Amino acid sequence: MFMINVGVLGYGTVGSGVVEILKKNADLITQKSGKEINVKYVLDLREFEGDPVQSVLVHDFEIIKNDPEVNIVVETMGGLHPAYEFVKASLEAGKNVCTSNKALVEAFGPELIKIAREKNINFLFEAAVGGGIPIIRPIRDCLCQEDILEISGILNGTTNYILTEMTDKGAAFDDVLKDAQDKGYAEKDPTADVCGYDAARKIAILTSLSYGKTVKFEDVYTEGITEISAEDIVYAKKLDKKVKILGSAVKKDGGISISVMPYLLSKDHPLANIDGVYNSIMVVGNMLDDVVFTGQGAGKLPTASAVVADVVEAAKFLNENIYLEWEEEKLPLIPFEETKAQFFVRVKGNDFKASGFDVQNVPSEFEGETAFITSEITEKEFKAFKDSTEVINYIRLK
Ligand code: HSE
Question: Is 202 labeled as catalytic in the residue annotation?
């Protein structure tokens, strides 16, 4: 059987997981795919004395790039540089590339896809969004016949864990964050997760793939979960809803809006009961209606498993580009202030009366405040209201 040789760039959490899966499941991968896959090199700056990887360890990328026997490069280094330079050089040398690097895909996806197309090879990145959850390939292949009307996802395990703990324990954000950091579920610097930036990169990638044109991370209107309080969770429970932070792209009236923000979800919403560190992505197609993909969005083996799936696909289509539409051209988006939502709002004062839109009052749970749910209004209308009122907090409804 023709042997496929792989060079793995980076022997960190995901890279070592890839090597582990390719070794442990070698027989069944060969059996199911008809391909024998060999890890010929692992590139890392470090030494790994006592680890069998040492026998294939190299410290110079040029060795991998210049070896004609290497058919597939796996990039699990993370970061933009030198990952971008190595991936680009690999593609230009005619090697398929599989990466788990979300930042790389968000920043350089269309350029790398184009090089792969020109070289008749593949640039694959299943693990870059949703870790072990198959979502890139389903959007590219299984849903390509659909006009995608919505993608909404719990795209970040850290924030889903924090919101779940706040809901289950009635605890404050800061306390749960600290506990999550102690348990290793949140980074020391949790900004990218709790402020929604990580989810913004992921929804930007999913939206670009769904519509074939680029959405940049900075085009995504983003609100994190740092303002969600234990008091808000009390209201959520009274309203029989769950607070979840979603990355969403919605196609409505011919335009697409995109955001990351916390929502109050009805308990029967497909994403309402996805708890803990789990991720889940709902895609709504005009023919299919809704389909939901759920699983572990991070972690060594789930993420590495998605990378290995790409390696197997690259092995099957070694010299054939699998068409993937994602052009550099920007996807036109509806300006955020024109999008509409219903808001749950808490304002200071016992006898507050809203004007300018209809409201449905919610019994107040705390002294000195009024709570209500607005009719559907534009973000511009809500901002004008917020700027002229003592709003304690607000959460949109979905
Ligand atoms: N910090 C991310 C999360 C890891 O919590 O989901 C995966 O991107």
Answer: yes
Q: Which two tokens stand for residue 215?
A: 């959405």
The CATH fold of domain 137-296: Dihydrodipicolinate Reductase; domain 2 (3.30.360)
pTM for this structure? 0.97
CATH number listed for the domain at residues 3-132+300-316: 3.40.50.720
Whether 44 lines ligand 1, by a CB cut-off of 6 Å, is no
Q: Tell me the C-alpha distance between 234 and 245, whole Å.
A: 17
Q: Are 370 and 349 in contact (CB under 8 A)?
A: yes
Residue 58 forms beta bridges with which residues?
A: 43
64 contacts 39 by C-beta, under 8 angstroms: no
Same fold, 3-132+300-316 and 137-296: no
- The domains of the chain are located at 3-132+300-316, 137-296, 336-397
Q: What are the pLDDT tens digits along the chain (398 aa)?
A: 789 999 999 999 999 999 999 999 999 999 999 999 999 999 999 999 999 999 999 999 999 999 999 999 999 999 999 999 999 999 999 999 999 999 999 999 999 999 999 999 999 999 999 999 999 999 999 999 999 999 999 999 999 999 999 999 999 999 999 999 999 999 999 999 999 999 999 999 999 999 999 999 999 999 999 999 999 999 999 999 999 999 999 999 889 999 999 999 999 999 999 999 999 999 999 999 999 999 999 999 999 999 999 999 999 999 999 999 999 999 999 999 999 999 999 999 988 888 889 999 999 999 999 999 999 999 999 999 999 999 999 999 99
What dihedral angle (degrees, nearest 10) is formed by the CA atoms of 109, 111, 115, 117?
A: 60
The best mutation among 158, 225, 301 to test binding of ligand 1, ranked by most ligand atoms within 8 Å of the C-beta, falls on 158
